[in-house]
Amino acid sequence: MNTYSDWKDKASWLSIRNQAFIDGKFVNSISGKTFSNINPATAEKLINVAECDKADVDYAVAVARKAFDDGRWSNMHPSERGKRLMRLAELIEEHQDELALLETLDMGKPITESTRIDIPGCARCIHWYGEAADKLMDEIAPTDPSALAMVTREALGVIGVVVPWNFPLMMACWKLGPALAAGNSIVLKPAEQSPLSVLKLAELASMAGIPDGVLNVLPGFGETAGKAIGLHMDVDMIAFTGSTQVGKFFMEYSGQSNLKRVSLECGGKSPHIVMNDCPDLDRAAGDAASAIFFNQGEVCTAGSRLLVEEGIKDEFMEKLIKASGSHNVGDPLDPDTTMGSLVEEGHMNKVLSYIDKANEEGASCKLGGTRSAGRDGFFVDPTIFDDVKPSMTIAKEEIFGPVLSVLTFNGEEEAVKIANDTIYGLAAGLWTKDISTAHRMARAVRAGTVWVNGWDPSGDMTIPFGGFKQSGFGRDKSIHALEKYTDLKTTWISL
Ligand code: NAD
């Protein structure tokens, strides 16, 4: 187990990949431009990174298309593709410390989370899809006996993957695992705030035997490189994770170009409902705190709206404040830290402006409410607002920071009404002893995932993940994600 000083020592000699990865090689951007990559915990520059734009996207898409068309990966035996993906999963595990450090230095999350959650989760995901690569069967349709109609799945071609900064490597792996297992080629743009771990992954993919040109990684900005991928006439599908606003841009890009398929994983404002008959108030309070403070609240499924029933409200608030005390802000490289820095100064200012708005609109601040004192980086203290009304800005908009809104309700019907009073529908949580209440409410809440009596308890790969409403459509994880990177073909043979 690494200590604080071990991590600081490792960080000082870490080698960082900062060029684009195209056709199996690390290369500068065609323009030669670079942009600064900042460590948000110190506000200091880590390194300059290649700034790709439309010219690089055109080049990478041509490379990916050639790789797809000549079959070096798409026509490889699926079990061999699977073997190489499983080798990649092993390499992720072997390079766990390095990848965890890149993730933590790049976006500010605690090293303990990078090592315990992010990197093992990535290895598990890639391994799972490696195992699945030769498990998808095709169909023979039950037609008239004078014909044989085969329904087969084919890889789509070139997939544009555009991902956010909150789980940089994991969001990439959730797309890469199924897309590569199905035989596609990839052009991936990481978020400009967090390109480093995915560039390392590209190197490991090459070591694992994923052929040149199949996985290309282009650091750059959304409005240039991201838009060029979205508008490209030779990209067959976009797999996007990020904000709802940018998700809508990708729908427009598709309509303005080649009608490429679009799969969107977007924002959330997830309700976490605690009924009077909650089976364990201490555990629910602990989960309510983790649901908002884990990863500094920079989680699409963050339990940012806590709905507590009147009868247990006072007792629950006491337990919640106590449980929140175990979420300590600190240097992300310190293994005792549970909350690191926010990803960048602009984002911290946005989070602080929501706190100002909550105070102006009459919510009561019960914890935190300020930038963390005595630090050069972009830290905000864990913050809880009580007396929040559904109409207040902090109850409606995604803050994507450590700010919890507590709302009070009376009865199941009101809880469901408040829970569904949002444009989002990513996840929800519910605490009740009554199995009928649990089933009724889980059905009534419009969300892609509903957790009962425990908030997000597992990183299980077998379950689909994704949203209803403006949280997007398309699913990551599970066998369903593999389906979305393929198309159905019918071959009808008259006998
Ligand atoms: P973002 O939408 O600003 O950026 C996401 C990606 O899109 C980045 O790579 C960015 O460079 C690119 N991009 C930005 N503007 C673009 C444009 N005009 N054209 C093309 N590409 C563009 O999101 P973010 O700030 O990086 O991440 C936070 C958001 O991601 C939150 O809304 C969060 O809920 C969401 N998210 C959703 C999930 C999920 O699975 N549903 C998971 C993680 C994060």
What does this protein look like?
With 495 residues, the protein is α/β, with parallel strands linked by helices. The protein folds into 2 domains: 4-266, Aldehyde Dehydrogenase, Chain A, domain 1, CATH 3.40.605; 271-458, Aldehyde Dehydrogenase, Chain A, domain 2, CATH 3.40.309.10. The chain is built from 16 helices and 22 strands. It has helices spanning 4-13, 54-69, 78-94, 96-107, 111-132, 168-181, 196-207, 222-231, 244-256, 281-293, 313-324, 345-360, 393-396, 412-419, 435-444, 478-484, and strands at 20-22, 25-27, 34-39, 44-50, 139-140, 147-155, 158-162, 185-189, 215-217, 237-241, 261-265, 271-274, 305-309, 364-367, 383-386, 403-409, 424-425, 427-431, 449-452, 468-469, 472-473, 486-494. Strand 15, helix 13 (393-396) and strand 16 (403-409) form a beta-alpha-beta unit. Helix 2 (54-69) packs parallel to helix 8 (222-231) and helix 4 (96-107) crosses helix 5 (111-132). The structure holds nicotinamide-adenine-dinucleotide.
Topology readout:
Elements: H1 4-13, E1 20-22, E2 25-27, E3 34-39, E4 44-50, H2 54-69, H3 78-94, H4 96-107, H5 111-132, E5 139-140, E6 147-155, E7 158-162, H6 168-181, E8 185-189, H7 196-207, E9 215-217, H8 222-231, E10 237-241, H9 244-256, E11 261-265, E12 271-274, H10 281-293, E13 305-309, H11 313-324, H12 345-360, E14 364-367, E15 383-386, H13 393-396, E16 403-409, H14 412-419, E17 424-425, E18 427-431, H15 435-444, E19 449-452, E20 468-469, E21 472-473, H16 478-484, E22 486-494
Parallel strand pairs: 7-8, 7-10, 8-9, 10-11, 12-13, 12-18, 13-16, 15-16, 18-19
Antiparallel strand pairs: 1-2, 3-4, 5-6, 6-22, 11-21, 14-15, 17-20
The structure holds nicotinamide-adenine-dinucleotide (NAD).
